[in-house]
Amino acid sequence: MIVVDEQLLGTGVIEGIDHWYRGRVLDITELRPGTVIKDDAIPDLLCRARQSTFITINVTDFWERIRADERYCVLCFPLPDCRASEIPGRLRHLFRLEEFKTKAIRMGKVARVTSQRVEYYDLNHRHYMLKWSM
């Protein structure tokens, strides 16, 4: 399951991912309908959702702030709103890397994904960097 941050609603990100991803794609508000979801509540919601991968452009509040957990993966894309449409393509490219290829492998990672590299940390607080080009 891919869960998209609410600030990406209306940007075409969900539709772009849904076009090629075989699993479920939804926005974070579907995990707790009818309520305001603060950033600090997101880890608990992700823990309740089965093997979810959370997509956000809110790097400041998630990268190196959220704990890695074996029940979810967090992918931060440092892009302005106007470039959010690039996320589905970058995500598809990312899912081709061995380190992110399957849900089971992705779980327990928090990553920052740019056009030049993927930085991530895991459950053991180890940091990794993979160079790539988009």
Could you list some keywords that capture this structure?
134 residues; seven-stranded mixed sheet; 7 strands; 22% strand
Radius of gyration: 13 Å
Helix content: 10-25%
Structural class: alpha/beta
Please indicate the count of domains.
1
Helical segment count: 5
Shape descriptor reads: globular
Structure summarized in a few sentences:
The chain is 23% helix and 22% strand. The protein has 5 helices and 7 strands; from the N terminus they run E-H-E-H-E-H-E-H-H-E-E-E. The chain is globular, with a radius of gyration of 13 Å.
Please describe what this structure looks like.
With 134 residues, the chain is of the alpha/beta class. Helices cover 23% and strands 22% of the residues. α1 packs parallel to α4.
Give the helices and strands, then pairings.
Blueprint: E1 2-4, H1 13-20, E2 25-27, H2 42-48, E3 52-56, H3 59-62, E4 72-76, H4 87-94, H5 103-106, E5 110-113, E6 117-121, E7 127-131
Parallel strand pairs: 1-2, 1-3, 3-4, 4-5
Antiparallel strand pairs: 5-6, 6-7
Helix pairs in contact: 1-4
